[in-house]
Amino acid sequence: MAEHPNAQLVRKGYDAFVRGDMETLRAMLAADATHHVPGTGVLSGDYKGQDAILDMYRRLGEETGGTFAVELRQVLVDGRGHAVTLHHLTADRHGKHLDEDGGIVFRIVGDKMTDLDECVADIEAMNDFWS
Question: What is the torsional sign of CA 124, 128, 130, 131?
């Protein structure tokens, strides 16, 4: 059975992120998309619009000296414009190592991602890493 189009879109987005293909990501994001990053760290907050979101992705690499890595583990869809991912993150920053599970709740309208809400398994560990 073919994978749902929303799952395919999200997988394509993760692949583009891993490869550093920001132009593909830009094409997948609605112009007014918002990415919500939880916690209290240097990258926490709401990023509104393609430029702000892509700049935050650039900063992930910059803040971690290029060590930030994500492995997509699962994509779940509801067939009504939502997709949920489960992934694993690793990175090094300022002598600290991140090795955590997380996910993103996506809102998809048509073939564009409009809202991305990050969730993490251990918010305190993330806050410490990004402090």
Answer: positive
pTM for the full predicted model? 0.94
Q: What angle do CA 34, 97, 7 make, to 5 degrees?
A: 40
Residue entry with tokens 């293909």? 21
Residue 26's alpha-carbon distances to 61, 79, 93, 125, 130, in angstroms, are: 17, 23, 27, 30, 25
SS3 per residue for 88-114:
EEEEEECCEEEEEEEEEEEEEECCEEE
Cβ proximity of 106 and 115 under 8 Å: yes
For residue 38, give the amino acid letter.
Answer: P
Q: Give strand pairing partners of 120.
A: 102
* pLDDT tens readout for residues 72-110: 999 999 999 999 999 999 999 999 999 999 999 999 999
Q: Which amino acid is at 63?
A: E
